[in-house]
Amino acid sequence: MEVTRLENLPPPPGIINSIRAGFDTIASHITAILLPLLLNLLMWLGPRLRMDEFFNSLEDGMVAIWRNGGIPSEDIQRVLDWYETTIPAINLFWLVRTLPVGISNLLLSNGTDSTPMGDPAIWQVSGISLPGWILLLTFIGWVGGALYFRSVAWIVTVEKEKSVRTYNAILQTVLLSILFGIILFVIGMPLLLVLFLLAQLNAFVANLFVLFLSLGSVWVIVPLFFWSHGIFLDRQNVFASMLSSIQLTRFTLPTSSLFVLTVFLLAYGLNFLWRIPTEDSWLTLFGIFGHSFVTTALLAGSFIYYRDMKAWLKDVLEKLRPVNSVHQA
Fold first, then answer.
1. Most buried residue, 4, 97, 145, 323, by CB count within 10 Å?
2. How many whole angstroms separate alpha carbon 118 and alpha carbon 124?
3. Number of H-type helices and E-type strands within the chain
4. Rounded to a whole number, what is the distance in angstroms from the first to the last CA of the chain?
5. Smallest Cα–Cα separation from 244: which of 252, 210, 278?
């Protein structure tokens, strides 16, 4: 009898079907890509917010401290070379892309400062204004991400009247992002310290540690991917949404991990295609539109997968409950 029940269970939602449904949904609601489209255009044609002048003002003092500390000149020059190629290419407006909830963008700027409309304006931060800019841009990213996720989830939601309210979406997003940062720091810092110590002792052991972390990260990355979905689809609070994602992952880890991997590979792989046109060419518009459409469609697909997988899991547990009760009796 138990075998018959297991055979009669409905199949779980398909990965390809969920992603395809996401593309179909966004194709029929194209305005959903508006926020990532506008953000990408701002990153491309808008001003750059830099901090290289601030670092330049600190360079002489830092070099003097390093020399007094006995650091070899070769190491100091290596750090300065890295600084000259990296820091001037950083646009602090990138901070608007927050995790785990945020507006997707292509991060086009590579330090060349060239656009079809000429050289963009360059804004420099000071040591006093830098913390303020970081806080402001992060908060804007949280609010924008909440609105973006809510708009996509609203399209996927069957009963529109039960969709999450804007204020609650923003509040729960802020709380979730703060909690995400705390957890990432608490877990990440000890792991980085252990990795650094192992690298000093033996490179082979350090590589094994990285491999172990890569394999074990599936148990963390997949629940993190669905952390926010309960907020926008089921109007849950932060902790209820986290528990829902953990429960979903617990019962559907092989399928859910494959879904997350597929989404990542599609988004990451297509980014190479979107970046083919040079930044001073109007052809970049096609890359921006393609990126905005695909990432929004993948987000919609993840909401559809989460919604259908939760419904399937609920149905399966209800059908198996009488069997479990009989065995316990």
1. 145
2. 19
3. 12, 2
4. 16
5. 252
Name 307's Cβ contacts closer than 8 Å, sequence gap at least 6: 156, 233
Q: What pLDDT digit, counting tens, does each position of 6-39 carry? A: 556 667 889 999 999 999 999 999 999 999 999 9
**115 bridge partner residues:** 118
CB 59 within 8 A of CB 87: no
| Lowest mean pLDDT across 97-111, 122-136, 150-164, 171-185 | 97-111
Question: What are the two backbone dihedrals, phi and then psi, of residue 61, each rounded to the nearest 5 degrees?
Answer: -65, -40
Q: Domain segments of the chain: what residues?
A: 11-51+90-322
Q: What tokens were used for 129?
A: 């204004």
Q: How far apart are CA 31 and CA 178, in angstroms?
A: 29
Identify whether the C-beta of residue 144 lies closer than 8 Å to the C-beta of residue 96: yes
What phi-psi label fits residue 99: left (phi over 0), alpha (psi between -120 and 50 degrees) or beta? beta
